[in-house]
Amino acid sequence: MVYFKKLGALLTSFDLKTSGKWFVLSCLIGIVAGLGGIVFDVLIQVVQHNTLVAIAGFDHPQTVGEHSIYEDEEARKAFSPWWMLAVITAGGLVSGIIVYNIAPEAEGHGTDAAIDAFHNKRGLILPRVPIVKTIASALTLGTGGSAGREGPIAQIGAGFGSWVATVLKLSARDRRIMLAAGVGAGIGAIFRAPLAGALFAAEIMYSNADFESDVIVPAAMSSIIAYSVYCMSLPQELQFMPLFGDGLHHTVDSHFELIPYTILSVILSLAAMFYVKTFYGTNRFFKSIPIKPMFKPAIGAFLTGIVGIGMYYLFNKDLQALSVMSTGYGILQDALTSAAKISIPLLLTVAVVKVFTTSLTIGSGGSGGVFGPSMVIGGCVGTATGRILQDLWPEMVTQPEAYGLVGMAGFFAGAAHAPISTIIMVSEITGNYSLLLPTMLSSTLCFVLCQKVHLYQKQYPSRLDSPAHRGDFLIDVLEGSRVSDVFDPGRKIQLIHQSKTLDEIVHSLAGTQQHYFPVVDNEGRIIGIFSEDDVRAYLYDETIWKLALARDIMQSNFVKVRPDDDLNTVMQRFTAINVEALPVVDQEDSGILLGMLNRKETIGYYNQQLMKHKRAGEESEG
């Protein structure tokens, strides 16, 4: 802990924008997020191998770029739908018991919790949350629950970033940046999309077209490190392989193809609206059930299993129909590479039913992400739409698989209000950048059409609305203003000599409204300051009233301002150390006290300037 304190003192001595500081912190976050991604991936496979595979005889298909730690077994247990139902229900039950008895904050889809912590909790995430989230999500996904991997891994990175900032005693602003960098690192590692991870962390905080610009560079650094650490755990042939392989080389052969892509965007927007409304409708339903919350994930898991079994028998025991459970990446891989092998009814049914199974799994309080299922839903809707449009316009629509890729981006861009990062993410996880034009079109249209739906409900519209940036609007109004414009040098201030006893100080406080008291030496030079609260700590110990002097209770390392200091800087200092007054010292000699600057009078000055700007604006409009 001593080393942490020394490191914290070193880091806080840097300017907030110093790249060296963020390089060190981002590397730490990236390493932990990368290792967390490895551990989480292994946990899922261990749970799946020892439950679904060993008991129910079912192994969910993986993508080309995924790696299994278990070799294929020739003699595998025959698939049993009913054992699968028992496994998924047990997984939901154990997950619910762990979450609601240790860290109730870990329920649901972790990205929203990280967003909420950024805006409303000064970037604070309890250390136990990412640990519990990892275990519970591994149980949920490993036993067949319909969820994604990005929420838990994002919360691992975010939780570690928040913890490090707290241990190093960094500011709330720094803690928020580190939290967001952790989110970016987790996403960059688990999807092997470092650029998208950085942009996702900056964009996902807001529902409008706004970015958390301070986050981008630290998130980029942490995402690169996390991606590198995670990929080093893979076999050599997979280390630089995109998640869905490197064989996706779709193209745009004519600008007229943007017409069917526009049609696709409208369909995706409707699907995104259906997804969000179903998800939160299911969530409200489960919250209304009058039983203990820890048992609700088991109910959701049981119903998910029932739906999965229904799909299995509806499509004549086709195992691809079970893509409505777990990640569902298997059918998405086929939809992006060989769409003709999957029937249109199966694609559309999986897309629709995946909405319900995801809502049941996570909306009931289960643990997992919502981005993974969004990719499956959007990809299946896109490929099915491409197949249908190919039948109508065979000369224009020649690659229905490309519509699946664009569908993944457009669907999530609309539901989550993250068009830019989604465009890059889908390109990175598929290794295909040749569809940027239709992907940008679809993501932008879906973003515009889905303004009233919010998959992440903790998002704020913009930086202006976020509590994390409350007070930032002062900067423009106070630009050019100085301390000398506000403080009154003629105001009488009670000074306390360093040799004054605590007993004398206590009695002198009774006759003044002053709250902060400068301490001076024999030459009248300021050497420290104390507040009423500092004195109050000694009130119940009268034995030291005659012994303690002013220099014993004062703060010798205090913040001071000068007449020429910018008021923006002063307001940041007021906020950072949370005091109501600051001593104003001579411009050249910091030992000469000129007066005290009060926070209230600074805010009053701001209000005056605001009214001036408002009147000036009204006059210019007139």
Molecular structure report:
The chain is mainly alpha-helical. The protein is 58% helix and 4% strand. It has helices at residues 2-12, 19-56, 81-102, 110-120, 128-142, 150-167, 172-190, 194-203, 213-231, 258-288, 296-314, 329-337, 344-363, 371-392, 400-416, 419-430, 436-449, 474-478, 502-509, 532-536, 550-553, 567-577, 599-621; strands spanning 496-497, 516-520, 526-531, 581-585, 593-598. A three-stranded mixed sheet has the order 1-2-3. A two-stranded antiparallel ribbon has the order 4-5. Strand 4 and strand 5 form a beta hairpin. Residues 10-17 have low confidence and may be disordered.
Based on the model shown, name its key terms.
single chain, 622 residues, mainly alpha, three-stranded mixed sheet, two-stranded antiparallel sheet, 23 helices, 5 strands, 58% helix, 4% strand
The secondary-structure class comes to: mainly alpha
List unreliable stretches of 5+ residues.
10-17
Q: Topology as H/E string?
A: HHHHHHHHHHHHHHHHHHEHEEHHHEEH
Strand order of the largest sheet: 1-2-3
How far the N terminus sits from the C terminus, by CA atoms, comes to: 62 Å
Total count of helical runs of at least 4 residues:
23
The major pleated sheet works out as: 3 strands, mixed
Proportion in β-strands: under 5%
| DSSP strand count | 5
Structure summary:
The protein has 622 residues and is mainly alpha-helical.
Topology at a glance:
Blueprint: H1 2-12, H2 19-56, H3 81-102, H4 110-120, H5 128-142, H6 150-167, H7 172-190, H8 194-203, H9 213-231, H10 258-288, H11 296-314, H12 329-337, H13 344-363, H14 371-392, H15 400-416, H16 419-430, H17 436-449, H18 474-478, E1 496-497, H19 502-509, E2 516-520, E3 526-531, H20 532-536, H21 550-553, H22 567-577, E4 581-585, E5 593-598, H23 599-621
Parallel strand pairs: 1-2
Antiparallel strand pairs: 2-3, 4-5
